[in-house]
Amino acid sequence: MSEQSLNTELFHIYYKRWISVYKEGAIRQVTMSKYLMTHQWVIQLVPQLKICELTRISYQRLLNDYAKTHERQTTMDFHHQLKGAILDAVDEGFIDRDPTRKAIIKGKTPREKKSKYLNQFELHTLLANLNLSQDINWDWFILLVAKTGMRFSEALALTPKDFDFTHQMLSINKTWDYKSNNGFLPTKNQSSIRKIQLDWKTVIRFSELIKNLPEDKPIFFDTTHKIYNATLNDMLTRMCKKSKIPIISIHGLRHTHASLLLFAGVSIASVARRLGHASMTTTQKTYLHIIQELENKDVDLVMRSLSELN
Question: What sequence ranges are listed for the domain Tyr recombinase (predicted)?
Fold first, then answer.
């Protein structure tokens, strides 16, 4: 294809080729799905837009049209996924100037968010209402996520051999591909491979629950059936309503776990390792509001201590 024809190529065709060349095999499938979804939106919003027609105004119009039906953060993600391809097009000389420069990110009014985490009393109330039968069920799944702070996909991938009851440890070394039902997958990142200490009550309970289960099969579900995140969230919603506490998601149990540890005085470094965060920076950003609240308490404690000095 000549340079002239590349200049007049439709943007969505160029973008699809760019995804294929630069992203296939380099990113996780879940991230690839987001790029492909962005590509579909480009086809829908600007099907006839050519690369040579990408100016600051035409690009801003594209963002504005996308923002009509999406919240600001989602529009920001859309912008970032397009920007890499557009900057490469500028480097190749297909576009004279960077049309993404000074782009304004808009978005519709965010929906009212669910609570991100429960306080200690609310979590105790939820756990007290679980139906913890003698056989494995989804209530046990909820209990274990609340006790460990695991990601949804990590908890789905647990097999009996991941439990080390002698040392009260649980190994996190894989995830379950619940979106495509293609079996076990690697963890989110290298830092996600970790061992989580379990309390003795959980150890005793699960040692009985899983003693007769296949060593290498997921313990919570039959792998021949697809598992949906929404199904578990709906189940948890009903439990929260029954318990008369704020409604949270399964991922909210992870936030609850981390929040309670931080409020209990556990260090950020320990919480980061337990959650499988790549760095403490991630933990600090995610739980900044809690850390600030704890710092305010520390200031009060320091002032009280100093005031008692003669």
Answer: 113-301
| Cβ–Cβ under 8 Å, residues 246 and 259 | no
Residue 276 lies inside a defined structural domain of this protein = no
Q: Do residues 171 and 234 share a domain? A: yes
The boundaries of the domain holding residue 173 are 120-250
Per-residue confidence (pLDDT) for residue 48, from 0 to 100? 96
Q: How far is CA 204 from CA 7, 57, 166, 208, 210, in A?
A: 67, 64, 10, 7, 11
Q: Which residues contact 128 (CB under 8 A, 6 or more apart)?
A: 243
Amino acid making up residue 118: L
- Pair (83, 147) in one structural domain: no
Letter for the amino acid at 43? I
CATH number at residue 162: 1.10.443.10
The beta strands (E) that lie in the chain are given as 163-164, 169-172, 175-176, 184-185, 194-197
Q: What angle do CA 66, 68, 74 make, to 5 degrees?
A: 55
Segment 3-39, tens digit of pLDDT:
555 568 999 999 999 999 999 998 888 889 999 999 9
Q: Provide the 8-state DSSP code for 97.
A: S
Q: How many domains does the chain have?
A: 2
